[in-house]
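In response to the reviewer comment on reproducibility (Comment 2.3), we provide here a single inverse folding case reported in full, input and output, so that an independent group could reproduce the run without further information from us. The structure tokens appear first.
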């Protein structure tokens, strides 16, 4: 993790957020318009920013995604634009993410974007995420090279995005059918039949019946602002040999050999992320010393297990060190004294920039989703 680039991105999040353009709205995180619930699609997941507070009201939905191995998720590259490839992410497996979760989370330990990804055109707009541990879910079936849907074929889209129906909130896994309208060398387009993908469905699967197999033919990457007329998907067969299969064949990153103790993070420094427990990032503090931390918190240490903030005493919060398990939540105590009330703008005590930046980031993302 490059501390300077992280802090620059977080400081930028403190700036006023301009009204999003139609193209931005169409291609950032949106359940399926005109769709139905998808209880059987367990291999379709949601990508969320790594949760920090154990009393956090709801996770921050970024995109949808597909399990292509029991420890690998395929999603859209633009889903990583805000937090970057060095950001901290989790994947949610379950039918309902929002407003209350019905499922479980797994930490993401490795992220890769397709090297040919072009943000402006969404060319090769795909990314792969490696999970901290395999999950007991059967992955989706990958196509073979050259196996692509024909114009007029029915395609099934699945995701956690917008429904354009006030009675059907985003954050629940839904499915719907579209029809393929054109096929390009590395992408294809689809229209409503009668459903349509929308914001939050980005990164989710476009499934097509080829013979007796339903295969993962595409990854949703963009569409019209109203989610009514057209959706664009990257062809999975076009990125198989140069991107997907090499990643699946690569080795899992080794766990840290001797990670620092979570309760000693205020007194111990790190050289890189391999020194940090639970997948924390090693980020330089205001004096250039590496500190293990969650990017949404200032420097601090993790103490006793907890379930709520009130269990941690004054100045401490109940923070999420890991995605799940009995020791997931532990009392977090900052290393430095927080900024006094009334501090102007983004000015704060050393190390608290990340906390302020992520707060603004959350507000900005929610604004984009709507």
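Designed residues, in position order:
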């Amino acid at each position: 993790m490059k501390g300077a680039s992280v802090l620059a991105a977080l400081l930028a999040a403190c700036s006023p957020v301009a009204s999003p353009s139609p193209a931005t709205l169409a291609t950032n995180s949106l359940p399926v318009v005109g769709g139905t619930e998808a209880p059987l699609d367990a291999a379709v997941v949601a990508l969320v920013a790594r949760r920090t507070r154990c009393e956090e009201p709801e996770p921050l939905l970024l995109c949808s995604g597909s399990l292509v191995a029991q420890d690998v998720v395929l999603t859209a590259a633009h889903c990583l634009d805000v937090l970057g490839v060095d950001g901290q992410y989790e994947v949610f497996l379950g039918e309902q993410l929002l407003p209350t979760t019905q499922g479980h989370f797994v930490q993401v330990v490795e992220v890769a974007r397709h090297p040919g990804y072009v943000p402006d055109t969404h060319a090769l707009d795909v990314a792969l995420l490696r999970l901290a541990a395999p999950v007991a879910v059967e992955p989706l079936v990958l196509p073979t090279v050259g196996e692509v849907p024909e114009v007029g074929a029915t395609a099934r889209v699945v995701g956690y995005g917008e429904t354009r129906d006030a009675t059907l909130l985003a954050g629940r896994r839904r499915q719907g059918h579209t029809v393929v309208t054109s096929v390009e060398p590395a992408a294809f387009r689809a229209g409503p039949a009668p459903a349509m993908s929308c914001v939050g469905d980005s990164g989710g699967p476009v499934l097509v019946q080829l013979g007796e197999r339903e295969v993962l033919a595409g990854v949703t990457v963009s569409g019209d602002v109203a989610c009514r007329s057209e959706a664009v998907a990257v062809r999975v067969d076009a990125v198989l040999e140069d991107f997907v299969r090499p990643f699946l064949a690569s080795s899992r990153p080794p766990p840290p050999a001797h990670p620092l103790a979570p309760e000693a993070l205020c007194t111990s420094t790190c050289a890189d992320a391999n020194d940090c427990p639970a997948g924390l990032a090693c980020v330089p503090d205001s004096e250039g010393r590496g500190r293990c931390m969650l990017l949404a918190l200032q420097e601090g240490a993790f103490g006793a297990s907890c379930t709520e903030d009130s269990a941690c005493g004054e100045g401490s919060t109940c923070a999420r060190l890991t995605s799940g398990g009995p020791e997931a939540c532990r009392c977090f105590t900052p290393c430095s004294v927080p900024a006094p009330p009334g501090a102007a703008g983004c000015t704060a005590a050393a190390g608290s920039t990340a906390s302020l930046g992520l707060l603004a980031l959350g507000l900005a993302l929610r604004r984009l989703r709507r």
